[in-house]
Amino acid sequence: MDVDLVVPMKHPRDGKSRLRGAVEADRHPGLVLALAADTLAAVVSAGRVRRVLLVAADPRAVGELAELGVEIVGEPAEQSLNAAFRHGEALLKADDPAAVVGALQADLPALSAGDLTAALTEAAGNRAFVADRQGTGTTLLLAAPGEPLDPRFGPGSARRHAASGAIALRQALPTLRSDVDTPDDLAHVRALGVGKHTAELFI
Predict the structure, then answer these.
(1) Alpha carbon of 94 to those of 19, 40, 68, 89, 196: distances in Å?
(2) How many CB atoms lie within 10 A of CB 197?
(3) What is the pLDDT along the chain (203 residues), one digit of tens a residue?
(4) Closest Cα to residue 173, out of 98, 97, 120, 136?
(5) Cα(75)–Cα(88) distance, rounded to whole angstroms?
(6) Is the pTM of this model over 0.85?
(7) What residue ranges in 10-153 does DSSP mark as E strands?
């Protein structure tokens, strides 16, 4: 079955606070947008992805990302990561109650369409998740068809998602496990090979 993905995003000026200093201060919002743009470019080109819904703190601030083929909506009154995922899920299921909904982080600039497609194939319609490269966080969470997404993101989310019955996907999936929170993470994804938007910032 094809999957509908929810991707949350803070205002670019507020996002990725631990990356401040990786580029000049006035270029920080551009870095946050670039990370998301490369993530979304890979997502929309992946097999088995039907819709991509970007839940944004300020849709106008990220409007250029719509050019990649994603839908953009505002975040709910409760301004938290899990609330953003639940809001996107509700909108997607209003159109298709039987949809397979997934939650994906917006900071995967090395993401390859092949790794995402492989993860969706391995999940095979089960509730499943992909842990980050450190093994503690979650980069992708998938619900079973028609079932609640039940996102439990935050510190230690991999353990909480496993406790909720989600299957940990076992393939290597290096580009899907490599989210960017710190300068070390940024160095890691640059070594893997980031998309063009992020790469242009370091030319």
Answers:
(1) 36, 23, 23, 8, 35
(2) 20
(3) 799 999 999 999 999 999 998 888 999 999 999 999 999 999 999 999 999 999 999 999 999 999 999 999 999 999 999 999 999 999 999 999 999 999 999 999 999 999 999 999 999 999 999 999 999 999 999 999 989 999 999 999 999 999 999 999 999 999 999 999 999 999 999 999 999 999 999 87
(4) 120
(5) 8
(6) yes
(7) 49-56, 71-74, 100-104, 128-131, 138-142
Pair 12, 33: CB distance under 8 Å? yes
Cα distance between residue 176 and residue 172, in whole Å: 9
In angstroms, the CA 163 to CA 4 distance is: 23
Q: What are the two backbone dihedrals, phi and then psi, of residue 175, each rounded to the nearest 5 degrees?
A: -75, -25
Using DSSP's 3-state secondary structure scheme, residue 84 falls into helix
Instruction: Report the alpha-carbon distance of residue 48 to residue 195 in Å, rounded.
Output: 21
